[in-house]
Specification:
5-stranded mixed β-sheet; about 30% helix; Beta-lactamase; about 475 residues; about 25% strand; alpha+beta; single chain
């Protein structure tokens, strides 16, 4: 793919400075239109604490509105736009990830292919295939996760109990999460841990959880073959549930597969983890959905594990920092000035400007047809649908504590399209709350930032409209 398509570089000229004689003959026949509000006035009127960087360009890459557009800001999950494009270019839209069951002598192997969306239901399908294959009982059962580098968590900047900060491996099950449920029984609690999916939710034997009288919400430790969580009794209430991250993913997947095979009449030994994959015969396999589908879901649900694994697949690097640098190198001149530390935006060490993001949208974003993969009207989930808004938006949100970003495309009712990025942050409160779950004031601040973003997109759409009648 070439990153130097015509009209790719965004002009540095500020938009909205239209000469008085620029209107075409016959304008008097058109109804008068209200001038687009100045985005700076919207920002000032919102009273949002912090900083806002924004950029709008037309479809040809010409800048129409800029404000603090070169300000480096943590992109949060809008970085997944870069990751999606990187993976699409390097792997192709139809690429699939294969999970295999291999027979090598007296050993059966669950061999991961780095499928980021593998579920318990998929393992159940593999177990049924294995049961129908007529394999004799193996004396060893192993799990191989060497298709990707192993990492205990995505970043150390986030709390260890957050489900969106799990381990990475070539074998990943249910986004490397386990479902914790609890209910009060008498004076104490009964806890359950399940590898939950749509049709199958077997118990997870490699993870345990117990209630405890402690000030911390959770504590965690692990040995070679088991993970141990304790949960604060005071925080549980009567009944509830949440997802916890898995940090021993090969053993977790092997344990679940062993249970599912037992239901098929296939008895496997306890799983062991191997570093080297021996030669053998594939007796069952499962292919992931095509990459295009995986990316569409990643952009819709903002799954961090998917983003990191796709970036690692695309770069071939052995760690996230090196992989992110590979992605930056792929961007060429567009990546100049960016600091990329991961592929999901979970790390606060990544920094991108609104101007830089718009350049990405106008270059590889258009070359690789990103727009249909983005979520339509992403602000509706938080602000509700407004039927009076005539323009259409396809964009990616990005949220960290006191960071709220939006980047994508806006289309007017007459089909005129623009690219935009709006990055909002409150640095002092952001720095004070890194790694915390829902710090005080963050929900109110984020709602105000999203409201401002909706207003600014309306102003951008009006500018595109005004340009269309020139």
């Amino acid at each position: 793919m070439s990153l130097s398509r015509r009209g790719f570089l965004v002009s540095g000229l500020a938009a909205g400075l239209i000469p008085g004689g620029a209107f075409a003959q016959g304008l008097e026949q058109r109804p008068p239109v209200r001038p687009a509000p100045d985005p700076r006035d919207l920002i000032a009127g919102s009273g949002l604490p912090g900083q806002v960087g924004f950029a709008l360009s037309d479809a040809r890459g010409n800048a129409m509105s800029l404000g603090h557009a070169a300000l480096p800001i943590a992109p949060a999950s809008t970085i997944k736009v870069l990751t999606a494009l990187f993976a699409l270019d390097r792997l192709g839209t139809s690429h699939r990830f294969r999970t295999r069951i291999i027979r090598s002598g007296d050993m059966l192997i669950l061999a991961g292919g780095g499928d980021p969306v593998l579920t318990t239901d998929d393992l159940a399908t593999l177990a049924a295939q294995l049961g129908a294959s007529g394999q004799t009982r193996p004396t060893r059962f192993a799990v191989w996760g060497g298709a990707l580098p192993r990492m205990r968590q995505i970043t150390q900047q986030q709390a260890d109990y957050l489900s969106y900060n799990p381990a990475i491996s070539g074998v990943m099950l249910n986004f490397n999460r386990v479902h914790l449920g609890w209910r009060r029984v008498g004076v104490d609690y009964q806890l359950s841990l399940e590898a939950r999916a749509a049709r199958h939710s077997p118990r997870a034997y490699t993870v345990t959880a117990t209630p405890a009288s402690q000030s911390s919400l959770f504590t965690y430790r692990a040995d070679e073959d088991r993970e141990y969580w304790t949960v604060s009794r005071a925080a549980m209430g009567r009944n509830g549930s949440r997802w916890l991250p898995v940090r021993l993913p090969e053993l977790y997947a092997g344990d679940v597969f062993q249970t599912l095979c037992r239901a098929q009449g296939v008895v496997l030994p306890s799983p062991e983890v191997i570093d080297d994959l021996p030669k053998g015969m594939t007796v069952a396999f499962h292919d992931s959905p095509p990459l295009e589908t995986i990316i569409r879901d990643m952009l819709k649900y903002s799954t961090n594990l998917t983003a990191e694994t796709l970036g690692l697949h695309a770069s071939g690097a052995q760690d996230l920092e090196g992989s992110a640098q590979g992605m930056r190198g792929w961007l060429g001149d567009i990546g100049r000035g960016m600091r990329l530390a991961d592929h999901s935006g979970l790390s606060a060490d990544s920094l991108i400007s609104a101007f830089g993001m718009v350049r990405v949208l106008n270059g590889p974003g258009r070359d690789l047809n990103l727009r249909p993969l983005l979520k339509a009207e992403p602000l509706d989930a938080d602000l509700g649908h407004d039927a009076s808004i005539p323009h259409k938006v396809a964009a990616k949100t990005g949220t960290l504590n006191f960071v709220s970003n939006l980047a994508g495309y806006v289309t007017t009712p007459h089909g005129r399209e623009g690219s935009f990025a709006i990055f909002c942050t409150d640095p002092p409160r952001r720095n004070a709350s890194t790694g915390l779950e829902l710090p005080a004031g963050v929900s109110t601040w984020t709602h105000a930032a999203k409201t401002l973003q909706r207003d600014m997109i309306g102003a951008f759409a009006n500018r595109l409209r005004d340009q269309s009648v020139m």
